[in-house]
Design a protein that fits this description.
Layout (H helix, E strand, L loop, with lengths): L2 H7 L5 E4 L5 E6 L3 E9 L8 E4 L5 E3 H8 L4 H8 L37 H21 L5 H8 L4 H6 L3 E3 L30 E8 L2 E8 L9 E3 L8 E3 L5 E5 L2 H10 L6 E4 L12 H8 L3 E4 L16 H12 L3 E3 L8 H6 L4 H18 L1
Parallel strand pairs: 11-12, 11-13, 13-14
Antiparallel strand pairs: 1-2, 2-3, 3-4, 4-5, 6-7, 7-8, 8-9, 10-12
Helix pairs in contact: 2-3
């Protein structure tokens, strides 16, 4: 396999710009973007060709491409391109994604899409993507991508690392078979490519297994703002599932912020991902943990419609009803000075103090019964 084939396999569609050195192709750099700064010569130099980016100056042969772009170890790169390892001292060492210390539970109602025909290949690709995107976050355009998570969303660097948050620097569109996915077709009969969307990546890991990857696209990119990698399981994130008290929020980054700021309070956090998720769709063990908990604070996004004065009719109020009905120890605990936890933090409200006040109210309500 040569460099051009790997580059196209990663979802890029370069154009031929010259016939010198057996052909020259140009396209976006997998690391720093652009339009035609990344040059590929599949027939030049050593077996497999070579590449070079005129902006970030990465370059080398087919092995170096695997290391630079796909973040493979040297033995993995050799195995990927079918090149024999140079000596007996090298052994294959499969790079494992750093396991998060947070604990998660899968939701049986939301299993991995049936479009996955080769789960092993999908898992290998997904682990590589998590490695690549976390590397990108800490090595490229930190003032944009990392700063947004820390300065705009309030997450500590330790929280960002623990959750393996990352960034796709630009859109990529690989063929579905390279991800172990069954083909899906457009109306004109062409195969739909897999969309690896530019923006922050929010993976859900269980040990070294990738349950799913969610992309959060920049606001400037328009809709959709969030999308799942095809083949993912849209699992609910549960942090500290063995707690005796829980906070239920909608957004995953809000959930990470609550867990971070309330770490000393021993609170569990459930980030639904969508207000449409109902209690009955959670895994049985998660439902049991909620049922046996002392109290539950319901803090879904509080989005007011334009024409409603009744706060219970607002989006967060409607969604909360199912949780209040299901769990008698549940209480609505609205964000203040904002529609969600992050806006509240941005307004200068202490998340820990807000949590402590909610716990105190829940305890008093329980004692009053």
């Amino acid at each position: 396999m040569n460099v051009l084939e790997l580059y196209q396999d990663d979802g890029f569609q370069p154009r031929r710009v010259a016939s010198t050195n057996g052909g020259e192709w140009a396209g976006p750099c997998p690391l720093c973007g652009g339009g035609d700064r990344f040059l590929v010569w599949p027939n030049r130099g050593k077996e497999g060709g070579s590449y070079w980016c005129r902006q970030c100056n990465i370059g080398g042969d087919v092995i170096q491409y695997c290391r630079d772009v796909r973040k493979m170890s040297f033995p993995e790169a050799c195995l990927r391109v079918g090149r024999e390892l140079p000596g007996p001292s090298y052994r294959r060492s499969v790079k494992k994604t750093q396991a998060s210390t947070m604990q998660y539970h899968a939701t049986p109602a939301l299993q991995q899409e049936t479009s996955v025909v080769d789960p092993g290949l999908w898992q290998a690709r997904a682990r590589t993507l998590v490695d690549e995107t976390t590397y990108n976050l800490w090595h490229y355009q930190q003032d944009r991508w990392l700063k947004w998570l820390t300065s705009h969303r309030g997450l500590h660097e330790e929280t960002v690392k623990e959750a393996s948050l990352g960034v796709m620097l630009l859109d990529r569109w690989p063929e579905p078979q390279t991800w172990g996915l069954a083909p899906e077709f457009k109306e004109d009969g062409r195969v739909k490519r897999v969309w690896l969307a530019q923006g922050h990546t929010i993976p859900l890991l269980e040990g070294s297994e990738v349950l799913r990857i969610k992309f959060r696209r920049p606001k400037s990119a328009g809709d959709p703002r969030y999308l799942f990698l095809r083949g993912s399981s849209p699992q609910v994130r549960v942090i500290n599932p063995h707690s005796l008290s829980f906070v239920i929020v909608e957004n995953e980054l809000d959930g990470l912020l609550v867990a971070q700021e309330g770490s000393s309070l021993g609170i569990g956090v459930i980030a639904l991902g969508s207000a449409s998720v109902k209690p009955g769709s959670l895994a049985p063990e998660v439902q049991a943990a909620l049922k046996n908990s002392s109290y539950i604070l319901i803090s879904l996004d509080f989005d007011p419609p334009k024409d409603a004065e009744d706060k219970d009719a607002w989006a967060g109020g409607k969604a909360a009803r199912a949780w209040l009905k299901k769990f008698p120890q549940a209480h609505r605990w609205l964000p203040v000075k904002g529609k969600d936890v992050t806006e509240m933090w941005q307004a200068g409200v202490s998340i820990k103090a807000w949590l402590e006040a909610g716990i105190e109210r829940a305890i008093k309500a329980k004692e009053a019964k």
